[in-house]
Design brief:
Strand content: under 5%
Strand order of the largest sheet: 1-2
Structural class: mainly alpha
Distance between the termini: 39 Å
Radius of gyration: 19 Å
Number of helices: 9
Order of helices and strands: HHHHHHEEHHH
Shape: globular
Helix content: over 70%
Number of strands: 2
Number of domains: 2
Low-confidence stretches: none
Oligomer: single chain
Length: 257
């Protein structure tokens, strides 16, 4: 527990100022997180003999997708093309093949797109960015409290044995109400309240699904955490699994609120 608390304090001390500052500093920090997230997924694949240059290519592609504003169609095209051509260059199916490429391309696009949108949303306004963070943080907090106090029915026992339906519902309700209240007060007091509540509830639910999805990935690879970059908390993908899905949902539904 002590490690967990210290890690959380250090992480907050680093990232809260960067979130407040925004701009280039925030963009660089987000790009670094994107690379770390991609590294965790590359390490998860278990391809110990994969050529180092393959990993470096994916790091570069993730940085481009995260950091760059213009010519994004070109970057997406390169993210498809280069890893596939690398399969031919490698010419060794045991080290790196088309199946590996498709899997890693998908993850690179997911990470690059989501982290780029984090930067874009922060540039729209810090309060909107905080609103999205509150959805995941409050949902997780209340879900844990609810599950601990009254949780009886397992939500997905084969994926995450500690999660319960009771905790999920309590987390969704309180996470939605608190985050929506924040949005109404600090972002837009003229928003359609019903639409705001529906969108926030959807994002809260999506965040919980994101948590389960990444838990399923870990279960499939028989690992507890993606990495140990934050002692007691795991890796980048462990900490940001919910917000990744929330950002995707927000991109799709941002026009409603």
């Amino acid at each position: 527990m002590k490690k967990r608390v210290i890690s959380a304090i250090v992480a907050l001390a680093i990232f809260i100022p960067l979130i407040i500052l925004g701009g280039m500093w925030f963009r660089v920090a987000v790009s670094a997180l994107a690379v770390l997230g991609m590294r965790e997924f590359l390490n998860l694949s278990g391809k110990e003999k994969r050529p180092t240059y393959v990993d470096l290519i994916f790091y570069a592609l993730v940085i481009l997708l995260t950091f760059m504003e213009e010519n994004r169609t070109l970057y997406y095209f390169l993210t498809f093309l280069i890893p596939m051509l690398t399969v031919i260059y490698c010419n060794d199916n045991k080290k790196y093949n088309a199946d590996d490429a498709f899997k890693l391309i998908g993850m690179a696009i997911l990470i690059g797109t989501v982290f780029h949108e984090c930067v874009y949303i922060r540039e729209q306004g810090i309060m909107k960015f905080i609103y999205l963070l509150l959805i995941t943080t409050l949902t997780d907090t209340y879900a844990h409290l609810g599950g601990t106090l009254i949780g009886k029915h397992k939500l997905a026992p084969k994926i995450s044995p500690n999660k319960t339906w009771e905790g999920s519902i309590i987390g969704g309700v309180f996470g939605t109400l608190c985050a929506a209240t924040f949005y109404y007060i600090f972002v837009d007091g003229n928003v359609n309240v019903l639409g705001l509540l529906i969108v926030t509830l959807f994002l809260s639910s999506l965040g919980q699904l994101g948590d389960l999805f990444f838990s399923a990935v870990k279960r499939n690879h028989n690992v507890k955490d993606f990495s140990n970059i934050m002692p007691g908390h795991g890796g980048v993908l462990d900490r940001l699994d919910s917000i990744i899905f929330v950002i995707i949902g927000y991109i799709l539904l941002s026009g409603i609120i």
